[in-house]
Amino acid sequence: MAHVQEKTAAIIVIGNEILTGKSQDENAGFLIGELYKLGIRLRRIVVIPDDVDEISRAVRECAAQFDYVFTSGGVGPTHDDLTIEGVARAFNRKMVRHAELAAMIRNYFGQGADEARMKMADAPEGAELIKGEGLRWPVLAVENVYVLPGVPEYFRSKFLAIRERFRSKPFHTRAVFTLEDEFDLAPRLNQVAADHPEVEIGSYPNFSSPDYRVKITLESKEAPAVERAFAALLSLLDSSSLVRTE
Amino acid sequence: MAHVQEKTAAIIVIGNEILTGKSQDENAGFLIGELYKLGIRLRRIVVIPDDVDEISRAVRECAAQFDYVFTSGGVGPTHDDLTIEGVARAFNRKMVRHAELAAMIRNYFGQGADEARMKMADAPEGAELIKGEGLRWPVLAVENVYVLPGVPEYFRSKFLAIRERFRSKPFHTRAVFTLEDEFDLAPRLNQVAADHPEVEIGSYPNFSSPDYRVKITLESKEAPAVERAFAALLSLLDSSSLVRTE
Question: How far apart, in whole angstroms, are the C-alpha atoms of residue B3 and residue A51?
């Protein structure tokens, strides 16, 4: 499934408010669409509580397994904002006051730069600051981990400002909608999947509308491979049950 | 954070279609609300691809760490339906044809019970079938892992049919909405959190409307503990900036 040429990613959403339903996460949903359009293979989303051990474990694991890791949430000034510390622990780095960030905060808040505000300059030693067009505050990154805020407006503007550095070859996708039953399709579909291991084939039954009964998707970065699998699939389907292709 | 008397849960959402944005997950969002109302502490949500190794690893890890694990998706008849096999591997159990399930399938499909349909009777050895009012097909469970389908209508009806077995003491929650700035609040909030470790306190800034600037939540299964923390917090807040409490 993980094709050699693909860059992979994980999203770590941090926050008790998501796990208790006090807030609905919007950031993972947004990033799913962005990463897909960028040609990045998203391999995992994990939602965890505001707990520094859990954060550091998730970050360490994802950073080791995937090319890019994006965290969402847990970056404010209060006791439940533990993401930066979790990232530091994940990489066994000390937390230090980042000189450049500290200068930015002093510059912005002036006399109002009290300890709660200055704390926003604490970062893992050696953290990188990525500046983006139109961003007041940079994105903090440690190795392949990009720390983004939980507030959806800021999550989006920060990701959009750094997006182009992740752009890769896009996915090529085909879809087939049919009125055939998924059970009846299964043997043929399994055959096409076995014959075209380089193409990711998905089968999704639909029970909520009468338009079609199964949507089959075929996907890869190699368009010719997708087209070959698509042709092979079409040749095996009952053409009178075919609703449409995309 | 994990309080002794609380039962914990994890949700494992399985499906490439979620990670690529072809479908939006509705099941985790639904279950977040249900588990909260049942008094179950949801500790993790993980979304992973249709990959048997990843499924078995996630199931093994979550089953060992949490009281209940719910899986969503990957239970149909096609090559990308790997959840049941992943659960079997997580518990080192063989896949066997479940006699009772096989009889139900033969009974329902009659002459149409071909191999694709009979495959739905394959389950980890010793799997439990949980029957629920109004359910045509039982919920399959292995140890503390409950296997639910990805199609939202079926996910819901199956979970609702087995829901009562999970009911526990409910959470007691208070909320405070204020116009104070989160940076200014931070020292007082951190103090209340430190003084009331048995209460989970969250702080959520709001930038999308002018109604309030920070929402503070206080939560525990012990109502008196929440009320004590709530009173302590109110005594520290600027009353002229207080918008409302809940």
Answer: 13
Q: Pairing state of beta strands B95-97 and B122-124?
A: antiparallel
Asked if A29 is an interface residue toward chain B (Cβ–Cβ < 8 A), one would say yes
From A17, A44, A203, residue closest to B46, measured CB to CB: A44
From the list B140, B194, B98, B200, the residue with the least C-alpha distance to A19 is: B200
Cα B67 to its chain centre, rounded Å, is 11
Full-model pTM: 0.94
Which stretch of DSSP H or E encloses residue B87? helix B83-90
Mean pLDDT of A44-55: 97
Contacts for A142 with CB less than 8 Å, ≥ 6 apart: A87, A88, A91, A93, A123, A124, A126, A127, A128
The three-state secondary structure class of A94 is coil
Residues B227, A103: Cα–Cα separation, whole Å: 41
Q: What is the mean pLDDT of chain B?
A: 94
| pLDDT higher than 60, residue A1 | no
Nearest Cβ partner of B49 from A17, A33, A43?
A: A43
Q: For residue A176, give both structure tokens.
A: 């087939």
Model confidence at B1: pLDDT above 50: no
Residues 6+ positions from B47 with CB-CB distance below 8 Å = A28, A44, A45, A46, B13, B14, B15, B18, B19, B25, B28
pLDDT on residue B83? 97
Beta bridge partners, B222, equal none
A10 within 8 A of A46, measured Cβ to Cβ: yes
- Closest B-chain CA to A47: B45
- Residue A16: list chain B partners with CB under 8 A: 1, 200, 202
Decide if the complex's ipTM is over 0.90. Answer: yes
For the stretch B64-118, pLDDT in tens is: 999 999 999 999 888 889 999 999 999 999 999 999 999 999 999 999 999 999 9
Say yes or no for a CB contact (<8 Å) between B19 and A43: yes
Q: With an 8 Å Cβ cutoff, are A32 and B45 in contact?
A: no
Confidence band (pLDDT; 50, 70, 90) for B3?
low
| Residue-level pLDDT at B5 | 74
Q: Is A99 exposed, middle or buried (0-12, 13-18, 19+ CB in 10 A)?
A: exposed
CB contacts, 8 Å: A233 with chain B: none
pLDDT digits (tens, 9 = 90+) for B179-195: 999 999 999 999 999 99
- Nearest-angstrom CA–CA distance, B149 and B40: 21
Q: Please provide the distance, in angstroms rounded to a whole number, between the alpha carbons at the two ends of chain A.
A: 22
Specify the amino acid at residue B224.
P
